[in-house]
Amino acid sequence: MPDIQPTAVLLNPRDLVVTAAQKLGLSIIVVADPEAPLPDNTPQPVLRIPWTTDLDALVEQLHALELPSPVSCFGFGELGSTASAVVNARLGWPGNPPEAPAAFKDKARLRAAVGDRAGAPVAYVTCTAKDELPAAIERIGHPCVVKPVDGTGSSGVRYLADREETERYLAALRFDTPHIVEEFLSGAEYSVEALSTQGGHRILAITEKTTTGAPHFVETGHTLPVRLDASAEAAIRDLVTGMLDAVGYRYGPSHTEIMLTAGGPRLIESHGRPGGDRISDLLCLALDEDVFAQTMATVLGLPAPPAAAHQRVAGIRFVTFDRTVPMPGISTELVASLPGVAEVAITVEPGQRPPEVRQSGDRHGFVVATGSTRDELETNLARAVRTLTATA
């Protein structure tokens, strides 16, 4: 009797996810929102189901297909990681317990679950109503950071330096979801990319990041891998693995943001998915680490893909254009042909004025590049950014 081909149910997949499933020889079922754009390599047919708002309909249709084992549902975005865990639990398919991605999604719930298992706890207060914020801010003290418990992409993040700034912030705040007030952490900010399997948690890379700084801390660049001194790396590894153990995370990539303070690493937040801002691409470009293929292979009981073949350095830099004039039409072909450049994109439509950058979705464009050394990478990125902005 021939072996049954494993099946991967993919929720709104990126092109890299589809390619990874194809390389593993999986039977692929793509599920997409009715209006969601899909990559050119998406196999047909596609199940168009409003899964982000009607998970019951998705479970019902997948149940009706009577798919033979092994089969699992995979979502590698913020919504998809949570939805896929629920689908797998309800259909008896392998995957993370729903409690794990639910803890990542709620920053207060994550802190409560982790406690002191990931280093010194960060002081915080959860507020379910706007009128609770003044007392919470007074309790934490200035400076502090306030943000929605379920926010992503720096949306709603605000640094409050003193009482005057707090009064202005509260007067303008539209409070439509619980918020968390946290102590402000000072130091160097990094993210940690990890991959979890039944055998444990493996740290893939430490990623250096830059941000706009206060008050919104929107990310402006990432570089990986970076090396820190041995004691710092060991402390970071312990923090991340302790946190992942605490929430019961069993399968797949995670992206954990930490602040390396004078007293050691402190947990900012974590996500049960690959890092955004093309970090999963940077892992492939620099280290041959395909987190999508490795996750699907592990969950479906297939041999793991070959170990990484080379080590380079990869990075992404976000660009800002003149906000006082409408965006011109810009060709990216010249920048894409420059040494080391892997991807270039402009996210502002021609004729529109570039927005003020207050959250990740406001950024104007980006360049992804590689180099054999950190110096070569920085040279390639600087040349690409300079060329791109000079054509505006």
TrEMBL record:
Identification of the protein by name: ATP-grasp domain-containing protein
Domain of life according to the entry: Bacteria
Highest classification ranks of the organism: Bacteria, Bacillati, Actinomycetota, Actinomycetes, Kitasatosporales
Keywords: ATP-binding, Ligase, Nucleotide-binding
PANTHER family hit by this protein: ATP-GRASP ENZYME FSQD (PTHR43585:SF2), FUMIPYRROLE BIOSYNTHESIS PROTEIN C (PTHR43585)
Pfam family, one: LAL_C2
InterPro entries: ATP-dep_AA_Ligase (IPR052032), ATP-grasp (IPR011761), LAL_C2 (IPR040570)
Gene3D superfamilies attached to this UniProt entry: ATP-grasp fold, B domain (3.30.470.20)
Location of the ATP-grasp domain: 111-300
